[in-house]
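Intended use. Records such as the Phosphatidylinositol 4-kinase alpha 1 entry shown here are meant for training and evaluating sequence-to-structure methods. They are not intended to support clinical decisions.
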Amino acid sequence: DQEIAFKLVTHILGKVKVDSKIYFQVRSIAKMQIHSMSAFLKDSTRKQDFVLETRVNAKLFVYQAAAKMEIESLVLSLERDGSKILVMEGLALLLDAADACLKSVWRKFKACEELFGSLLSGIAKIAVGRGLGQPLRLLLIRLKPLVLDLCEQPDTWVRNQGNMFDSVFRISCEIIESGWAKDRPSVDTFIKGLTSSIRERNDYE
């Protein structure tokens, strides 16, 4: 099954040094899965029933395993050659997938919340691990609309449905704390921009 295969490959990536050709094949497979994930989550035409929900949950677990494989490959990319362009492309893909989770009709499913949390944890791991340097600014630019979109959806932050809120809050804090010493101007811009946007939306309402 795909989920087991992705988990096994992720485990191997973290334990042994793999050939470059195999590494790029792994990345290619992971990227295709994440592209497929975003399209799947954005499909709002699905009717909810028990059988379909079971299939959706199974699919979400496969996507979570694929996302973890992509995250592990990005971490290795930073450690091997410091290819920040490649890493930023990967982060953009993960952020797109997280955004699709947040806006999905399946977002209240535990499997979708766990997928969302895995995506954001991976983003934070890459961002704070060795530091992205200047690209941190680009990551914060992408993170801002995700935070604002989350704030607009009440069912993501009420007491019994707050897993997505907790995930965004946690990784935002991790990235801010890590970036404070490395690129404080970018962090300042992120915080001020977020505050300004929230104020503008409150004034509009």
